[in-house]
Amino acid sequence: MKTAYLIGIKGVGMTALAKYLVEDGYVVEGSDNSQSYVTDAVLAEKNIKVYDHFDEKNISSINPDVVIVSAAYDQTNPEVAEAEKRNLKIIYYSEALGMITADQKLIAVAGVHGKTTTTSLIALMLEQAKMSPSFIIGAGEVPILGTNARKGQGEYFVLEADEYRKSPTNFDSKFLDINPEIAIISSIELDHPDVFASEEDIYRAFYRFACRVPLSGEILINIDYQKSKKLVASLADRKFQTYGFSEDADWQVIDVREKDKTSFSIKHGGQIYGPYELEVPGKHNVLNATTAVIIAELLNINEQTLKETFAKFKGVQRRFQEIANINGVVIVDDYAHHPTAVKRTLEAAKAKYADSKIWCIFQPHTFSRTEKLLKDFGLAFDSADKVILTDIYASARELSGNVTIVDLLNEIKKSNEKVIYLHDWKKIKEYVFAFAKAPVVILTIGAGDVYKLGLELVDLYKNEA
């Protein structure tokens, strides 16, 4: 019996990996801190034992064949230190992904935005095409797939490819441990300023990633970003297919219409593909879906299967997830934490719920991102009728910084005066409940624990109803 112990198991990627390993015949245990996570139910469903604290004694429970460590931890973690002391096999999350995908045809979805939705959509399409893909998706739940990970019987493996650091002491990007046959690069712009000092730094990471695709492979890249154009020009020996709204794109998105559903067509090689209809809102999701159209062409998946996929796909957990509609008060949760993603999410809400006021409760994620992208955040909330800021979510990777929530408040006020900061969640709930009246959409936005606030608001409005 194979055994694996996962340190930092509650992270969405680690949870998906744990589920995959169980399906691959492993006995899996792991540990994390005592906080509740969206993944808790997923782990419980698979009967995976999880310790809610780190202790060197935990790791003795199953005498693991391999210890897999999340990117958040290093030798300062007592369990990592114990594994080293006992000469156990230790690998990081990204190395585990490289090992389990080594013998399969890997479709890897990279980019600063859209990885989770795109990975889910492509995995669903391959399932609809009876290709039995394996996949690992960085979300707590993907309702239409019924899981965030699966060991399929087919030759293709669909995987999120993350540009973030491999570990606290190894700043190489995680996606440099995998070898895709088909790579999707949805976007290249500055993020993770705790790792990448400039946009040029993050570009170099994506350049190295693209170099891992063999000459016989394919790279699909959104050409709407300047650094994407630079990448295509810099790697003349690789096969690129470009997509986007740009007229320069090989696959150009045209005729986008947003209402109850989002429709679009694609111009390619003098031919019009579509029109297609999406159940998920927003132009960013049109771009995500465009990659599925190109993959369908590459893998000879028919048009009917593609359209059925779009009709069935309702999104994933924490990506524009409508969690309640209580007498015209709609509560939506979204993981957006980069200015571009926040802006697109609010624009999508404005288009989908055109007759409602748009309220946004935003929890900034990490001090370094808030500081580095402060001016961009200031311009991200124009589509909101009301913005409420919470405290900056520090996360385990950094507990303090040089920026304050007041800095962000003042920056947003330059373009949207209807913004306030409330420190206490109880006060936020009281304020929203008192003044956000139907028809209204309340979005909780951020990569921290702001989703819990949304769930508490659901209870408030339900009790009133």
Structure commentary:
The protein is α/β, with parallel strands linked by helices. It contains 15 helices and 21 strands. It folds into three domains: 2-93, Rossmann fold; 101-312, Mur-like, catalytic domain (UDP-N-acetylmuramoyl-L-alanine:D-glutamate ligase), CATH 3.40.1190; 321-464, Protein-Tyrosine Phosphatase, Chain A, CATH 3.90.190. It has helices at residues 12-23, 40-45, 78-85, 93-100, 115-128, 199-210, 226-234, 283-298, 303-312, 339-352, 367-372, 374-378, 405-413, 425-435, 450-464, and strands at 2-7, 26-31, 49-51, 66-69, 90-92, 105-110, 134-136, 149-150, 156-160, 182-185, 218-222, 240-244, 251-258, 262-268, 271-278, 321-326, 329-334, 357-362, 386-389, 419-421, 440-445. The strands form three sheets. The protein has a ten-stranded mixed beta sheet with strand order 8-7-9-6-10-11-12-13-14-15. Helix 5 (115-128) crosses helix 9 (303-312). The longest helix is centred in the middle third of the chain and has 16 residues, at 283-298. The mean pLDDT is 93.
Q: How many strand units?
A: 21
Q: Which class of secondary structure composition applies to the elements?
A: alpha/beta
Shape: globular
Mean of residue pLDDT values = 93
As for the CATH topology of the largest domain, it is UDP-N-acetylmuramoyl-L-alanine:D-glutamate ligase
| Main sheet attributes: strand count, strand direction, barrel closure | 10 strands, mixed
What's the CATH architecture of the largest domain?
Answer: 3-Layer(aba) Sandwich
- Cα distance, first to last residue? 53 Å
User: Regions with pLDDT < 50 over 5+ consecutive residues?
Assistant: none
